[in-house]
## 1
Amino acid sequence: VIQARNISYGFGDTPLIQDFSVKIMRGDRIGLIGNNGVGKSTLLRLLLGELQPQTGTVKHGSNLQIGYFDQLRTELDPDKNIAENVGEGRDYIRIDGKDRHVIGYLRGFLFSAKRAMTPVKALSGGERNRVILAKLFTRPINLLILDEPTNDLDIETLEALENRLTEFDGSLIVVSHDREFLDNVVNRILVFEDDGQIREYVGNYSDWVRHGRHLAEMDRPSSQQRDSRPAGGAGVQRKPAKLSYKQARELEQLPARIEALEAETANLQGKINDPQFYSRPHEDVQAMLDQLQSKTAALEDAVERWAELEALQEAFRQRRNELVDRG
């Protein structure tokens, strides 16, 4: 998608980016993290080709189609309803290579069939942002740019965005100070660390914290829950969240892991139940007993984790249905 090699950029005698290289592949979900004023926006503009590096090169893959949230704000027609704005006059729109009815598609953004017929001029600010997101994902984009999305989006819109991102098969670059949002949507991060270096890590923000690295306290991504952030002048309670991309993948893989662990545990138990088992050398007996104990513990952990993720997913489904019905 994007390959930067040894790029540098600065203003006067103040270097912001020095000899930085990165390769962004299709499907990568990149979080850009750093102190205010260190060069996050500059790096983003360099990667997108809006700025030319003073040294080094930036190359884009063929057919790169970039989508920005804010670029569609002025395209909404306030006199048309939600479905007309998103479908652009069509009843069916093409999403991920499949034709979908615009009303059914809008349910994923918490608009009931009745609400989808509402003129945009009658919507709240949060609802308008959901319309923009719905419209954005109808475009044939393969690289989505989100610059501090949690500053402009309410809780329900953020959850709709996180939900849609789990289905988006393109690449993502997000600049954010919201730790929860970063943990839910990214799988790699580029961090402006306090020694002046930009380092790349696999995982999300919480994974990076476990490396023992630090940002300046005043600029560290917020670890506060979103339910403490005011929206529209009042506190908003965090709704049950959609599983993150990482959690959704884990839930998908857990049944096979549980089945494998059950088979291994049964196999070990069968060997231990053999009448001749305890006539073996003590070391062999103890090794197999320890193995059974380890596999049993792993099986219990896997089942417990599966139940936990299933409960989270069900809570989200119920809350989402309530919001759609209320709309």
Note: Residues 216-238 have pLDDT under 50 and may be disordered.
## 2
Amino acid sequence: MAQHLNNPATRISPFIVQPAHPERSRRRCVPFSLSPLRLGLGALWTWLRTGLSQRVHYFGMGMFKGRDRCENRRKARLGRCQRGWYVSAALVAVGLGGAMDASWSALTRYVMHHPYFTVQEIVVNSNGRFSAEEVRTWGGLVLGRSLWKIDPAQVEARLRAQPWIETAQVRREFPQRVYVTVKTRRPVAIVLQDSLLYLDDTGTCFAGQGKSEVLDLPYVSGLTGLSLDTPTARTALTGVLHLLSLARLWQEPLSEVHWDPQQGYTVFLARLRVTIRLGWTTTPEKFAQVGAVLATWPIDGPAALFDARFADQVVVRPSADERDPRAHDLSRPL
């Protein structure tokens, strides 16, 4: 007994209840993982899980595919609806555009022919050389015409086509008034050509007509047979303008300014029987010297020739007999 208790292999622990039949208990203690029930349940769960997952997958794919098909059908219906709406909107827009165009045309005709927009007053502003009636006639303006039918640009072009009108400005003031402002040319001399031409203060030559025939202006001679568009003629006319501006210092009206390509400029006075040969010298100092001599010359003095071609002096010579044709030959030397 003592040996049995002292043997660790056969010693019974007081805390462990030993089975009454160890062999029978050993046969019953089979691990649960190896039991047929666990194996069967595991196989069943595996089969169920695999089949369920596949079914869920197929079901989900079917749901997605069904949802895609529904979405595609919805988009197709929406596209057909949108195309129909676009077509309807286009037809409505075309109809409205045609109606608006017809309405606008009718409204335009009504407004353009309405008596409220007829011209009742034409105001003409000018320097008084021509009457308002002449300006209206040249511009084609009449009372009672629709203000909408008056084109200011066309009226201005017709007015500028008149030789005496330098600038023109036309303005409509609704509903019944037209303003016309014209600036006429200011002639300073008459150019002797094949036809009667006038020279204005800007150096422009224009044809005379109407009231311009009675103007008392100095003549410009020596350009007959020479085209006024050539550089020589333009230079000569520029010199005439400069000469006329300086001749105001003399306070004597001029009768004629003769230009000669070799001798230069010669001036004939209107009141005095004096001929002034300037040559090519047309400076203020030279005109002041001639003016000092003219101030002492009597009105009823004899015919004389003032030669101002010399520096710082004016040579006064008796004029030749007026009955001698050579007295008017300005090209011969003194």
Note: The CA atoms of residues 171 and 179 lie 5 Å apart.
## 3
Amino acid sequence: MLRTGKKFSKPSLSRVINGDVVLSEKSEKQPRIRLDHTLVKLHPEYNRNTLQNFIKLGYVFVDGQVATKPNTPLSEESKIELKLPEALTNPETKMEEAKKVKPDTIYEDENVVVFNKPAGLLSMAKGDYCLEPTLEDYGLLVHRLDRDTSGIVILAKNPETQTLLRKQFQDRKTHKTYYAIVEGRPKLASAVINLPIARNLKHPTTFIVEAGGKESETYYQVLKTQKFTHQDVQRIRKALEKTGFTGTEFKEGKTYSLIELKPTTGRTHQLRVHLKYLGTPIVGDRVYGSAKPDSTDRLYLHAKALEITIPKSNRRTFEAPLPPEFNIFED
């Protein structure tokens, strides 16, 4: 007798149906244990972001070895140790370190203190814990300067003064003047740059000129321009030996300009973004200019003056002298 019907295309499946093979259930996969997740449970006094930073800084040990990756896999037997430096666990130690690098005081009274911030000093801590001194170690922060920007900064000594000063920045009732050394020379000797600035979505920590961005306005005036010869570059580098900067961003045969800048708005990176858009980025700018990430030179941007009203209705203008590394142009 001829039989017709559907044939199995998978012999292995037919053996299962016939009972020749018995399927066994696979054991459930064990959950992966991550270092940062475990630290959160062991040290609830810190948030996860802070603990991840501790890991990256080399403060966490797994079985006696430094672990620098938050996603380091662990076993149930892993021994974890968190070893923080004294500057993080002892406030007095950090305060002593802060006193050693305290900026030069321009003015001080019972309500405010005005500093000439050096390039390299942070305005505020990145995260909840910071090993290095910041402006916040000396008073209440009112406004910020980028780490690599030097110059005038005002701090409050009490919350009431902090609120008063901050409102002036928000209402654009302060007047700020900056000096910068830029690559090349703008086409116009003086002009107002009125270009909106927005966050760069491709690189969220940076900003770009873009329609639809926030209103941003900067007045500038070219003060000096010079094409540097080989002798000029050698002179500059020798003159900067005592400043802690190298002058390596100044190149032979290139033109540079000293520019006065007066922003009427206070967008993040405003001056750097506007000058890049003009094709004249600030010398030493590792983000918006031609400086390499490992450059040993500074960002040539200095907050020269600040006009502001301090308590008791005193309208004052505070000035910080140009650092010696800015005095490189021939008269």
Note: Helices lie at 11-18, 35-42, 48-56, 86-89, 91-100, 159-170, 230-239, 270-277.
